[in-house]
Every structure is written in C-alpha cells, then in structure tokens.
Amino acid sequence: MSEVNFKLLEVDLTKETSRVLDVTEDVKKYLGARGLANKLMWDLVPQGADALGPDNILHVGVGPLTGLLGTKMVLSFKSPLTNWAGRSTVSGYIGDEIVKAQYGAGILFKGRAKRPVYLYVYDDKVEIRDASDLWGKWKQETEVMLRDRLNEETGEMFGVLCIGPAGENLVRYANATTEFVHSASKWGCGAVMGSKNLKAIAVRGTKGPSYADHQKVWELFRTYAVSSKTALHKLSRSRWGATASPAPLLRYAAEGIKNNHFGYHEIVEESNYLDHCLKYHIWTDGCPGCAAACFVPYFKNGPKGAFGGEIRHDNVGGFNANIMVGFEEMLEIATLEDELGMDGEELGGIVAWAMDLYEHGIITKEDLGGIDLRWGDVAATCELMKKIAYKQGRAPAALAEGFRRAYQVFGEKSKWYAFEVHGCAAPTYDVRNKEVAWGIPFATSHNGARMGHGIESALTEAATACIFTTPPFQQIWGSIEEATRVFLNAACGWNLSLDDVKDIALRNYYFNRCLSLREGYHPSKDDNFPPRAFDEPITDKYGNTWVWDKAEFEAEKKRYYVKNLRLTEEGLPPREGLERLGLDFLLPALKSMSLVS
How many CB atoms within 10 Å of residue 57? Predict the structure, then answer.
C-alpha cells in the first residue's frame, strides 16, 4: 500500500502567480490545516509583521481526514485582533471541494493584490480574477453572484468563501462565510482577506479524494455511519443544531446577560429553542462526511421582509440576553451580522460593552453618530453594527478595532466594563462559572478566549475533525486519538501508533503556542481574567453564586498548565518536550526572548 502525497496550492497575490508544492513530509509530521499552518507561519511570517500587511499569510487548510471525520476547514494567520497566532474554523462544502481538486494540504495565500480579486480554482485550472464588481457587496449577494456566474461559465456548482464590508474595511474581527451562514469567525480572518484585497475563494473539484486504501476507508466510514451511537447522536444534533445550547447556559450563569453583569434575568425565558424551531425551522443539512447534520437554518417573513440565517451558539451568545433581547429579535441581528461579515461572539460582546458605556455616560449619542444605544433596542443595535462595519463615527470606528485599542479612545474608566480575555470578548461561557464554562481554559489559551484551546483541539484542527461529529467516533473507537489513528493509517498509508498520534497533537499544540510567544504573548502578563471576574459575583437561576478569588485563580491556573497542557508552571513549553518532538529548531528564537531555559 503506497503512501499518499499531499499538494499545497501556493498563490502569490502580489506577483499574481500560483504553483503547487509537495509538502508530504510536513503533513506526516504535523498533519494538515492548523498543524501544517504552524510550520508555514513560522517560516514565512517575519517576527513582528503587521497582521494587516502583505507579510502575513493566509492558509486555507484542509487535511488527510477532511470529509471523513466531518468536514472542517481551518484558516490560519497572524491575528489582527491579538497579534498572536490566529485561526478560524468553518464547516460546509468548500473544504470538500478543495480535497476533490486534490490540494490535500490546502491553499496558501501570500502578498497582497493590487486590486480586488477572487481566486478561481477548477481542478488544475487556477486563476486570480478581478473582483471589482463584487467589492462593497454584502455576503449573500456576493456568493449568489459568484456561484451563478461560475455555474453559467462551467456548468458546475462551486464552493465559495467570501468576506463582507467589515472585512473590506479591516474590522479586526471580521469573518468569512460559505453557504451564507457557515462562518470562519475567530480572530479576524476576514480582515486578513480584506487586507490582501481578496474578496472570495471559489473552488470546484471533480477528481475526488485520493486514499491509500479506499476499501478500508469505506469500511471504517460505514462502521461510523451505521452505528447506533451515530444514530443517537444525530437525533439531537439534526433536530436542534446549535440552537439549543444558549438557553440552558443562560440559566446556569454560563452565558452573558446584560454585558455579563447578571447570572440570571427573566429575559432568558425569551430564548426558547422549541418555540423558535416550531416557527422557523424548515429543513436540516449536514457537511460531507457527517451523519450529525447540525445545520439548522431558519426563514422568517415579517414586516421587515423575508430573510434567513442560522442561530448558532457563537453568533447568538454574544448578543441575545447580553444586550437584553430574546431569540425573536436575534433573527434579525444574526442575519445582519452574517451579511456584514463579523464574528458574532466578538461583535456581541463589543455591542454589549458599548451599551454599558453609553448607560454610564462614558460614550455619548454624538460619539455614536446619533444612535440612542439603549438595552434591548434592536434598531439601534443594527444601526451600530452597520457603522462598525463601515467604521463610521468616533465610537464605531474605535469599536471596530477591538477592546484593547478602543481603550485608548474611551479612557481608563471604560476598562472595568469590558468583559474580555486576551483582548477577545468573552460573553459566552461566562468565565466565573467554574463548572459549566471554560474559565481556566480561556485564560490559559495563547490564541484568545475562544473554543479551540488545548491539546485535543491541536489534533482535531489538524486532522480537520469536526467537534460536533466526533462523539460517535470517540464512542466507537474509544477515543478521538484512536479514531484519528485508524482513519489516518487507511487514508494515508501510514503505520501510526496511538502514541504517534498523541505526539502529533502535543507537537502541534506546542508549536502553535510558540508562534504566539514569538509574537509577544506571555503567560505571566497575559493569562488573566477581566477585573469583574474577581469583583462582581453573579448568581444563576438555581441560587449558585459564582466569582473568583485571585489566589484560587493563580493556583488553578498553574495546575492547569502542568496537568492539562503539559507546560511548565510558568505556562511555557518545556525544552525537553520541544526537543523530543522535533521542535528544537524553535529554541534559538525562544531562548533569545528568555522563553525557554
């Protein structure tokens, strides 16, 4: 059984050229997507490079298991929000199209185009095309125009990933979407695309994936597909999608309410996922290689016209009760944030903060361009979102830069009201809740307060295994590491042991952390909670009160570094670990910054 080779499509936007590289050896060491991107970023992005400059890269990553353990595509880049290692994951069909075009290591963008462009990929045909007529358009119109245009030209349906006005205007938490609502949200990938004048990526692959042992791959996948464990998982996922997750968390003080000031409020009861589903849920869909089918869109026809979208945890949780509205109002807000092209979790936390600052007189109606920004006001919220996307007005332009840059505009008093970790909004999974939420994992993340932290994510986001589809794989094969191992060996022609897979996960985790360390992150100064996590207790619906003691936090953080992340007590990768995992080439840079002994 011969091993599979992995090709990377490299696109130089400055030179308007492309070429195909064989990166098989790097894929064997790091897998694809986020794993391979660590090596690409370390080698190609100069230390201290401007995240919105031409020296940054954008890796649109797939991997050996894209379409087998679900379908996730991972965009990797230096984050314009944190200036550390950033990544955005996205579901949908476009990752599968890249695999079927047989660019099994993804697409790498370098440089900056002189004018608005989009990338056209149809198997071996690769072109950088003019996108002037798409620039300035909102997301849905962009995707529809491009899909229709390419379908008329080729007779094929392309996967399209695109940005909206927020990405074009370099809002630091702009996202990119495919199929209108599948969102690559975190840490500003849309702004990186905008900085490169890259409006969209359109891909159609007809060759199909290439596996070392197609029969074995099919047998493994069939085991997953027909399992009763998979069927049971699908009953929940395909029925509710992510719509059900915010409501229970709101009752347990694990989701932000009124800019994270409350642990419970009666507004929570206006987020009823059963009521929402009965009124607006029409159909369900799933990504390639996924039996969970958790894509549950909504469609609404009302006084403001017809529109659709999807209520997902991260595009709702930042808003919702955090700005004192329920699901009914969120339908309009969620649709608009997708159209404008911003990460809903970040934007929701920013808007809630702005409402708090407005209530306390720290920003004014004049600062907001005439908006009377009151809690629960949907019209005012939508107007502010538009102004942020276009950077119109003193306060909206500052809010578009994220919390830490906005402090310089709004002043010292604004900081206490900001509920952020590492400069990232933390409205979902309120860090004070020590049982349900992600407090310590968020505080110790070298990327920012988001999901995707920890060693397991370093594996799943390299193998492109979707966390929403992995539970049955874990139940059938005993662990996600073992499921990854058996699928990798069949798909790639490798002979990995379970320890090999665990080493890949740890290698990728250390490497990603070292990237952020190189760019200025340091646990001693950065790994902390917002002041309110220590100063402002919250009480959930069931009478439990949550707040952190600083000494308790510091002790728990050190324990987590060592036990869960396999770091030193200072939160740094151990020298012996880097050497054992073949990452010794990182040591000179880390040693020069006193980040390793």
Answer: 22
CA distances from 228 to 285, 323, 556 (A): 20, 41, 39
DSSP three-state, residue 73: strand
278: left (phi over 0), alpha (psi -120 to 50) or beta: alpha
Pairing of strands 107-110, 159-162: unpaired
- For residue 541, the tally of other CB atoms under 10 A from its CB is 16
Beta carbons of 60 and 103 less than 8 angstroms apart: no
Alpha-carbon gap, residue 199 to 476, rounded angstroms:
41
Fill in the amino acid letter for 62.
Answer: V
User: In CATH terms, is domain 7-210 a member of 3.60.9.10?
Assistant: yes
Dump pLDDT digits (tens) for 416-454: 999 999 999 998 889 999 988 889 999 999 998 887 789
Q: How many Cβ atoms sit within 10 Å of the Cβ of residue 16?
A: 13
Handedness of CA 494, 496, 500, 501 (dihedral sign): positive
The residue among 553, 484, 571 whose CA lies nearest residue 69 is 484
pLDDT digit string (tens) for 65-120? 999 988 999 999 999 999 999 999 999 999 999 999 999 999 999 999 999 999 99
Alpha-carbon Rg for the chain, nearest whole angstrom, is: 23
| Rounded distance between C-alpha atoms, residue 264 and residue 228, angstroms | 37
pLDDT tens-digit series, residues 200-239: 999 999 999 999 999 999 999 999 999 999 998 888 788 8
Q: How far apart, in Å, do the first and last CA atoms of the chain sit?
A: 44
CA distance 37 to 505: 14
Residue indicated by tokens 């809002």:
171
In this prediction, residue 350 carries a pLDDT of: 98
User: Mind giving me the DSSP string for 512-524?
Assistant: HHHHHHHTT--HH
d(CA 380, CA 377): 5
* φ, ψ (nearest 5 deg) of residue 45: -100, 115
Say how many residues make up the chain. Answer: 597
For residue 381, CA distances in Å to 256, 373, 399, 424 come to: 17, 7, 13, 20
Domain extents in the chain: 7-210, 241-353+365-405
**∠ CA 15-20-25, rounded to 5°:** 130
Closest CA to 346 of 449, 439, 252, 257: 449
Give residues with Cβ within 8 angstroms of 151, minimum separation 6: 157, 158
Q: How confident is the model at residue 311 (pLDDT cuts 50, 70, 90)?
A: confident
360 pLDDT more than 90: yes
List, in sequence order, the alpha helices (H) in 344-469: 344-359, 378-390, 394-399, 403-410, 439-443, 454-463
Contact between 261 and 417 under an 8 Å Cβ cutoff? The reply is no
**This prediction's pTM:** 0.97
What residues are paired with 421 via a beta bridge? Answer: 424
- In CATH terms, the fold of domain 241-353+365-405 is 1.10.569
The C-alpha atoms of residue 37 and residue 43 are separated, in whole angstroms, by: 10
Classified as helix, coil or strand, 20 is: strand
